Amino acid sequence: MYRVLLVDDEPWSIEVVKALGKWEELQLTISGEVTDGDAALDFLSQEHVDVVITDMRMPGLDGARLLEAMSSRFPHVKIIVVSGYDDFSYLRGAIRSKAVEYLLKPIDPAELNRCLKLCIEQLQEDSLLASHTLKVFTDAASRERYQGYRFRLSEALLELNAPLVLRTLDQLGIFLTETLGELPNRAALATLAKDLLFLSSVLTAQPAEQPALPDLRSASDLIAHVSSAYSEHMEASRSQMGREQLNIDDVVDYLDLHFAKDLSLEAVARQFLVSKEHLSRAFKTHTGENFTHYLLKKRMEKAKELILSTDFPIKEIGESVGYNDMSYFHRVFKKYHGTTPGALRDLRHQ
After folding, report:
1. Cα R_g (the chain), whole angstroms
2. Are 111 and 93 in contact (CB under 8 A)?
3. Which of 127, 155, 225, 249 is 20 to 30 A from 284, comparing alpha carbons?
4. Residue 106, domain CATH
5. Is the CB of residue 338 less than 8 Å from the CB of residue 347?
6. Has residue 174 been placed in a domain?
7. What is the pTM of this model?
8. Average pLDDT in the 101-130 region?
9. Does 124 reside within a domain?
10. Taking 80 as the threshold, does the pLDDT of residue 311 lie above it?
């Protein structure tokens, strides 16, 4: 069983995550629940944890600083960021910390479980790669140095920083030649090639399809092959970003028409053929509002209108604005309007 730590200062948010996750089916167990980043780091120092699901805004050590600390102190842990604040600064922090995914509240159950499954796949891949690289580097110092180069490459790839990628690969090539010799074991080179090529998945958060490897005979061959693959992947990523043209007025019209459906930032981004990061930034810039808050506002104002102007059951009203979980609808409504749906309707009849 893989172990999960939940981090959120709102107990009801933790309960929502616990209720939505398919824990047993995915072979996951919740090993702890804490309310801030300091407590999370203490827990991680004392207990083995595979996955952390964390909110961003918390007292004390907030999510942003927690991600930074985890990235350096617990790099093996997979991170899922959950936030009600559709803000690119948070997203950027999540990317830099190698978070598996950035989910927006209200949480889509399917998205949460997709992310949990992805965490498991990455943990399994990490375990396999680690077992193979252990066979390549027989001493701890060499393994640690290799992991350092690996980490720097993943950071540079995330930033699409080609000069830093190439410079780090050159340094790695020198290290590998010194460590493995001029005529290294070909199986060892193939293992390292697969490991390094897997890093390109950080650009898409999905394991990349890897074609058959060429006949690698030296560290120089390995670095040349990986360098070419990285360059192609970064160029493809830049080209894709350049093609992402978006009319936010069309997005607003789409939300106004479909706000009652099961929408998420990712789902709307797919609808308009752009990345969710690009949609998030462009929406905030154009409207002055976060995507999530705009969608929440549309739903809450429509719910209020129906409660005050009709005698429809509150359950039907909640469903009509996109909430099938009534307890969650009541909590969100009260947080937004400062009163419950039932209390608002009672005021109407006074």
Report:
1. 23
2. no
3. 155
4. 3.40.50.2300
5. no
6. yes
7. 0.48
8. 82
9. no
10. yes
In this predicted model, what pLDDT tens digit does every residue of 326-346 receive, in sequence order? 999 999 999 999 999 989 888
| Cβ pair 103, 115 in contact under 8 A | yes
Tokens 């190698």, located at residue: 98
Question: Would you state the pLDDT for residue 93?
Answer: 52
Q: Is the dihedral of CA 326, 327, 332, 335 positive or negative?
A: positive
Q: Is residue 130 part of a domain?
A: no
Q: Which of the listed residues 55, 85, 119 is the one where a domain comes to its end?
A: 119
Cα–Cα distances (Å) from 137 to 10, 76, 194, 228, in that order, read: 45, 19, 15, 25
Phi-psi region of 181 (alpha: psi -120 to 50; beta: other; left: phi over 0): left
> Do residues 67 and 41 touch, judged by C-beta distance below 8 A?
no
Q: Please give the pLDDT value at position 200.
A: 73
How many Å apart are CA 302 and CA 320, to the nearest integer? 9
pLDDT digits (tens, 9 = 90+) for 167-216: 999 999 999 999 888 777 888 898 898 888 877 765 544 444 556 788 88
What is the average pLDDT score of the chain? Answer: 82
Domain hosting residue 312, numbered range: 248-348
For the sheet containing 51-54, what is the strand order?
A: 28-34, 2-7, 51-54, 78-83, 101-104
